[in-house]
Write a structure and sequence with these properties.
Length: 187
């Protein structure tokens, strides 16, 4: 709740154009809020987040992440842009968040995911986590299907995997497809 509230407070600030600037400002505000109210900073684990900005003139995606990655699937391969290995909040080896850039092409699909899907326990009698490598493989297997079908497949696979186990975390998988009409064709 704190993260959403502070992100909404930051959103109108048009001077923050880069995703890394947004994450750095959010970290500053989270740390200040935890120092000045009833939250106990030592009990706070921090936020994981991924933010992208797509320049619609050039189709360049700019990404910054706090632990979370973004996956870009094109017709040839999966590109994973990994987030910085630090949360939004206090961290021992704190560094400014960095931006990464990638040129998008016609029909590329972009996926965001919280860690809940990959961290879900299941798999039958030998319980284990689903893991991000399995999520990436699943996304690669279903990338050619319409996004609505992908949603159904992801949900079905999750339910099958967890079986009788309780859901261990929040789960979000968000998929976007770059329309052909907006894509820039490079020679």
């Amino acid at each position: 709740m704190l993260g959403i509230s502070l992100l909404n407070e930051i959103s109108p600030d048009l001077s923050l154009e880069k995703p890394s600037e947004i994450l750095n400002m959010l970290r500053y505000k989270v740390k200040n809020s935890l120092r000045s109210n009833q939250y106990k900073a030592e009990q706070y684990n921090g936020l994981d987040m991924a933010i992208c900005r797509i320049d619609t003139d050039t189709n360049v995606l700019t990404f910054s992440g706090a632990y979370n990655s973004v996956y870009i699937m094109n017709s040839e391969k999966l590109i994973e842009l990994k987030g910085d290995r630090q949360p939004i909040g206090s961290f021992v080896k704190e560094k400014p968040f960095k931006d990464q850039h990638v040129q998008l092409q016609s029909g590329d699909k972009i996926y965001f995911s919280s860690d809940g899907y990959a961290d879900q326990f299941g798999g039958g009698k030998h319980l284990k986590r689903y893991q991000s490598r399995n999520l990436k493989k699943l996304l690669g297997d279903i990338v050619d299907k319409p996004l609505s079908d992908q949603k159904d497949i992801l949900l079905k696979k999750h339910i099958e995997w967890k079986g009788d186990q309780d859901q261990v975390d929040d789960i979000l998988v968000l998929g976007l497809e770059l329309p052909v009409s907006q894509a820039i064709q490079h020679q």
